[in-house]
Amino acid sequence: MKTQRVLTGITTSGTPHLGNYVGAIRPTVRASRLAEVESFYFLADYHALIKVGEPARVQRSTLEIAATWLACGLDPEKVTFYRQSDIPEIPELTWLLTCVTGKGILNRAHAYKASVDKNNAAGEDPDAGVTAGLFMYPVLMAADILMFNAHQVPVGRDQIQHIEMARDMASSFNHLYGEHFTLPEAVTEDHVALLPGLDGRKMSKSYDNTIPLFVPREQLRKLIMGIVTDSRTPGEPKSTEGSALFQLYQAFASAEETSALAKSFADGIAWGDAKQTLFERLDREIAPLREVYDQLIQDPARIEKTLKAGADKARAIATPFTARLREAVGLRRLDSVVSTTTKTAKSAAPAFKQYRETDGLFYFKLVDAGGQLLLQSTGFASGKDAAGAIARLQQQGSQALEGLQAQLTTQAEPAALAQALAHFAPDKA
Length: 429
Ligand code: TRP
Hints:
There is one protein chain. This protein is α/β, with parallel strands linked by helices. It has 3 domains: about 190 residues, HUPs (Rossmann fold), CATH 3.40.50; about 80 residues, Tyrosyl-Transfer RNA Synthetase, CATH 1.10.240; about 90 residues, 2-Layer Sandwich (Double Stranded RNA Binding Domain), CATH 3.30.160.160. The protein contains 16 helices and 9 strands. It has a 4-stranded antiparallel beta sheet, covered by helices on one side. The chain has a 3-stranded parallel beta sheet with strand order 1-2-3. It is elongated and about 100 Å long. The relative contact order is 0.10. The chain binds tryptophan. The site of tryptophan has 12 residues, from strand 1 and helix 7.
């Protein structure tokens, strides 16, 4: 089976809290360590612009979320960890997809519909206060996913519709222009605990009941002491059922620890003591991560470097793939126009030519559809070596160029090369 590509994005509009940690960060970091997956995680900062109008908050959230994922053990050597806005190919693909997406489909997107319903209920114009950014949200998200041909997209239940829309867009594009995109599937974790917040309702920024993941130890204790409980006095048996405190404990503790706390509940533990137990258990897991986080957040330049390196990795895929998509839709160089008089299919394609010179060495060159020279090699000792270099270029496209620098004398500009090389590796990405 082909290595599964897993991709997910995190909108950079807030500060990570315990609910994000238990529901997304912890399971995702664990999954990213499995050998058989190739993971892509990115900071969805273009998406953040849809809801956040404060530049400093977008920047701060980007820093905090990047530091959080790294502190929680995401290994940027093993996964591709990048920032959406470092990949200019994403907005470019957004446009290509926009042009194959029915407006009616976007009308039915939950987030947009919710805004329209609210306006209608208030007797306002249906689109009052709705930006085209909110309307286009699903297309940007589809571009994120389809650019890397992800097979699986781990998301919350509220995002399933967006993945279905991405599939629709991929199918429409493939139907029109050929098989370029993998159809992605949403992966939702049914058994992942929905953490309650301080007031017992689901932990969520919109309820203002969150416990931030990396507050200082003392502040964490204070917040935990503020979790709502019932009014049972010390010595009175307490119910674990519906207890936010108990559920939070369960999300961090082992099965034995959890049943020990259940027993203490039945034995009438004082709420203050139960909170202290929860605090200590939480802090045991979080403290070592917090230490790394605090160091990282002091060193934004290091995080910036990590993200830039991630962007390079991502663009090694996105740049040649976009060249291939541009070619597919007809955004092409004019010197590759197929002449209607010389309509042999062969002359319309770029080609490698291998030959031997009088010096006894083996050479190759790459010419484009119009016969223009794109690459010229130096002499190779054997025909096999020259053929090997050609094979690498055909299989890896532009990515192979760096390793071959010493064997190349002429090189056309990168976009033209990427376009021509994309021709040989139609199944890449
Ligand atoms: N919309 C997602 C959310 O709010 C974030 C996101 C943006 C995303 N692009 C994505 C998730 C691509 C998965 C894949 O949670």
